[in-house]
Amino acid sequence: MIYDQLVNKEKKLALIGLGYVGLPIALAFARKISVIGFDINRQRVEMMKNGIDPSNELEAADFAGCDIEFTDSLEVLKEASFYIVAVPTPVDEHKVPDLTPVQRASETVGKVLKKGDYVVFESTVYPGCTEEDCLPIMERISGLKMGVDFKLGYSPERINPGDKQHTLSKIVKVVSGCDAESLVQIAQTYELVVDAGVHRASSIKVAEAAKIIENTQRDLNIALMNELSIIFDKIGINTYEVLEAAGTKWNFLKFQPGLVGGHCIGVDPYYLTHKAKKLGYHSEVILSGRNINDGMGRYVANKVVQHIIQHAGDPRKARVLVKGVTFKEDVSDIRNSKVSDVIKVLQEFFVQVDVVDPHAESDELMHEYGFGLADQIGNEYDAVIVPVPHQAYRALDDAYFASITRPDALIVDLKGIYRNQILSRKYWSL
């Protein structure tokens, strides 16, 4: 059995895609069994060979004591017998799932697949994608048949970037297989690194759906908070004060408003609605939530522009500072950051926008969004926006904001971390 062969190091496990998800999984397995870490980006591979995480999530010490070979070579990849695919699943500019990464990964697996091998996908996809989109590619290229020559499974990733508490080993892992035998072998393999245990889903489609609805549920709850925030702003009351009061009831779900970006919550619901549309069903609730969340960047920017017009006059002469541009606090990941929407709308009004972030890379921002980081902070801003509550920003006080702004400036605190602390300037939060 493959599990015993992996444990005895008679066979190797390979991780395809070494980003935020793939690398931690690869290193976790590499403390137990022999692992091949495969990525198509040679520069990233070289960094990992030197104990550097390109995603800035892991320390050099996390690479110590690991039986792992990093490579971009198919010849080396062929040495594995258990393949885990952890490549991204984005959407295009039309919010349509872009399966290119998983399709290319399937092609890669197809080129190295052998009889007796196992393939497990971790990429977030719609129910049916693994068997209907990925499997045919692997069978065509390899000439092998699933269930006869090799086994297929799906185990959705649950890694939360920047979260040092809910790590891989501490989160129950959902696993599935193409038959009873594969389910047992895949479950036992993941149990090597997941102390919290595994949940054995009844089918691959069930496991795929479970992952999709995790993020869809969260997306909808945040959308409700965002819509409430818009309503409460019109009423003239603070959303966070309302949520504190409501949160005193034991069964109130404590979600907060905010910009919803990143590579999961802001993307995954579109995979589910895309599948639903193909089956003849048009989603209403899910897409309504998405529309609200996708529009929050423009909503925030418009609030700032309105303040500028009222107090400073011409937006073209105004300066705004944006502190934080990654998709969430204390990570370097800028993928699908909705802060860029705020900046884009401000620039549509010809506002001069300075952007700073202790975690982001200026060149990466320029490549992805067309703007970089400011070399230094000025001292006469008409507004300061803090959309990302990095730890480095939490100690900032009223005196600090007063020192870098005009007297009639607006401090925009999207996550409410400075509530009741900003007294010398106009304050606004979601």
Describe the structure.
The chain is α/β, with parallel strands linked by helices. It has 2 domains: 208 residues, NAD(P)-binding Rossmann-like Domain (Rossmann fold, 3-Layer(aba) Sandwich), CATH 3.40.50.720; 136 residues, Rossmann fold, CATH 3.40.50.720. Helix content is 39%, strand content 15%. Helix 5 packs parallel to helix 6, helix 8 crosses helix 11 and helix 12 packs across helix 13. It is elongated. The model has no long low-confidence stretch (mean pLDDT 95).
Distance between the termini: 55 Å
CATH homologous superfamily designation of the largest domain? NAD(P)-binding Rossmann-like Domain
Radius of gyration: 24 Å
What is the chain-wise order of helices and strands? HEHEHEHEHEHEEHEHHHHHEHEHEHEE
Query: What is the number of independent domains?
Result: 2
Count of extended strands: 13
Number of helices: 15
Structural class: alpha/beta
